[in-house]
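Bench notes, bay 3.
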Amino acid sequence: MHPKLRPVAAPSAQVHLDRAALARHYTAVRERSRALAAPLSAEDCQAQSMPDASPVKWHLAHVTWFFETFLLERFEPGFEPFNPAFRVLFNSYYNGVGEQFSRPQRGLITRPDLAEVWRWREQVDARIARLIATTEDSEVLRLIELGLHHEQQHQELLLTDVKHLLSINPLRPAYQRHWPLVSVARVEPRWVDVPGGLVEIGHSGEGFAFDNELPRHREWLEPYALMNRLVTHGEWWNFVQDGGYTEPRWWLAAGWDWVRNQGVRAPLYWTLPQDPNALPSVFTLHGEAPLDPHTPVTHISHFEADAFAHWASATHGEWAGARLPSEAEWENAAAALPVQGNLQDGEAFHPLPARHDAAGLLQMFGDVWEWTRSSYGAYPGFQPAEGAVGEYNGKFMINQTVLRGGSCATPKSHLRASYRNFFPTDARWQFSGLRLAR
């Protein structure tokens, strides 16, 4: 099992927000978590659908634990914890802090109840506000900024974990009833050439970054091309109908074993039709819906993304040579583009079709995290940060694959071209999809 989802790491040393801006950002992020939980009942917030997912209540408590443990405990005069038992209950994987409660059993933590978690959050918020107003220590401001990006990671996890939870319910309940899709014209797939050469990869030093985005360094890229848009549900349905899940030649050996052992026949949340001429239905945060062939395919594993690329290259002449991009190719192409698209802030909570058949690259940010072919590892000269807040990058640089670009569940202010997400090759309950390269 993957030990940690979207790990927390220490940021670069510079403080990127002044005191007043940090206070406003703190309030906005904490209120956003409350808003994301608002459509849910206490029962919704308690349940845990699988070991890789956590209850909403646990997410709300854990991010509060971060501020109490790494800020108040260290820097507040006369510190006293809200409840000393919470130090173990809501620790995730910070071994430097101490013991943790079993991850697969987080749904069994019925006490504290949700109301007490909200009271804890309110108390910690008031104490952090005083700390921001009074501290002269730049490390405090740096750690608060880190804590806010950590909370934004958990906002995304809250949505993806709730989607998995609701999908298990035979009533197929909606998190949000509003349906965001509108009829749009099909955007034809085409290649966008990128010259390559000696390029710089990694965080540039402006704004916040996690330590796994550092140091910025040079890499050589041969000329390459990226598809102008993401692979769609309709294109994936063609793969399914062509026997993509039954033909071993498209799959990595470990991927084919996974398909057979797990009985995988389609992306997560698809319901395949009995009528071969009908389209599947798909479960979304807006409830069960007919599959829209123009929306980006999502909830696929790296195994599936890689198999699709092999199939596309062999069966579509215009896609000959198709493969997954490297993370350096992706970042080089995205570096000059604005961070805009279908992100959490738009509250669609579902991948949307490419809306404009414009020249250049579309959907580089938002909609779905894009699988790359790059293993998650250290950049040349990488040095893990010291202390407990630095535990969550260097020690996970094995058996993970990099994804780029954010998703419909990612907050806009949390994202940048150098952001490195990573998951094991069989993970697919996150909003993960693909873009072809060659």
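Next record in the batch:
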Amino acid sequence: MDGDTLYPIGELARRTGLTVKTIRFYSDRGIVTPACRTDAGYRRYGPQAVARLALVRTLRELGLGLDTIRRVVDRELSLGEVAERHAAALEAQIGVLRLRHALLTAVARRRPTCEEFEEMERVHRLVRLSGAERHRLIDDFLADVFDGLDGGPVHTAARRSMTPELPDDPTDEQAQAWVELVELSLDPEFRAGLRRAAGDHAAVFSGTGTAPPRPDAVALVREHATAAVRSGVEPGSPEAGAVVAALTAHCARAFGRPDDAGLRRWLLRRLSAARDTRRDRYLELLALVNGWPAPESPTPAIDWTVTALRASNSRTRPCAGPAA
């Protein structure tokens, strides 16, 4: 057929795979216009209408709005420019859908019951959070733990290191970890425990103006006791006593205290407060969400040190005897 061929709307529908009603709608919107009308008022379309409608159909299937499509087919916008914009928008939508899919998969694996409706409602709200809302939720948790404490740069670094950053396209494992991490952060008892630990840590630096680069007691315990734990040293053995002596001497230097029974009691209190399996779990989940290497739990070193300290104290306690 040559360029003078005109198609009635029924033939145009057959050639394009669109319905007559759809073509009439596009025609009324000015997206595809008839070349002329018959004396009876019937529309006739030229050959270019076939290609134009094929493009319109493709763009509609890709999700573009009719106003944008009209501007493309009228050459008011370049197809490349529109495709780039639309691809970026779709990428953002896909990221949101993937995140929701991953979070919902995490919820489904937990098999909640009807009796857990309130928990399901909370998790449902977590699934729908935007990125900014997720940040605000974690910021609120960390503010509850650290705000108002004089921990200086040490607390600033700790706060930064405890911040989860869920990727836009998380794995199912990351999404599941994020749901559990947020639920843990919403637990008032967990928050209060971290607040007490942060307060104890800040008290070490009270009156110094700024927090000096002193190590935390738990960090010192890991430094001195980890090798003993791995080597299977018994906490009540003389070899363990040497480890405890080195630890308390280091703590005395670090915290400006005499290496005496008072320091050992203080250290036992700090370590007892640090034995929180939920804190270990938070750090495990944090590593999963942020894609960090799995952290090594300090609990084995803490437990070993507590036992070794008590054994050492019992060995060094003076025996009761007659007055000299």
